[in-house]
Design brief:
This protein is of the alpha+beta class. The chain is built from one helix and four strands; from the N terminus they run H-E-E-E-E. It is elongated and about 55 Å long.
Length: about 80
């Protein structure tokens, strides 16, 4: 699709119609990978953590566009103090 500045009036109208049809009520992804791992922000650690199905939590960093475990140390289980 062309940039907005280069769109014709008809293309802009189609874009506005498409945006107007979005209700925001569609379900989003469940955020869990097939192996049961998910990522969440930990406000105590002030960083993103990987959460395994068993509840283990590992700090992660973004490396070349992918999340990787930061130090490989066990942080704790959900609901437990780190």
């Amino acid at each position: 699709m062309a940039t907005y500045d280069k769109m014709s009036a008809e293309e802009r109208q189609r874009l506005m119609d498409a945006l107007g049809s979005l209700t925001g009520l569609q379900a989003g992804p469940n955020g869990q990978l097939p192996d049961g791992i998910h990522y969440e922000y930990d406000p105590d650690l002030k960083t993103t953590v990987e959460v395994t199905p068993s509840g283990e939590r590992f700090p992660v960093v973004l490396v070349e566009g992918k999340l990787q475990r930061d130090c490989g140390t066990l942080v704790g289980r959900k609901g437990e103090a780190a």
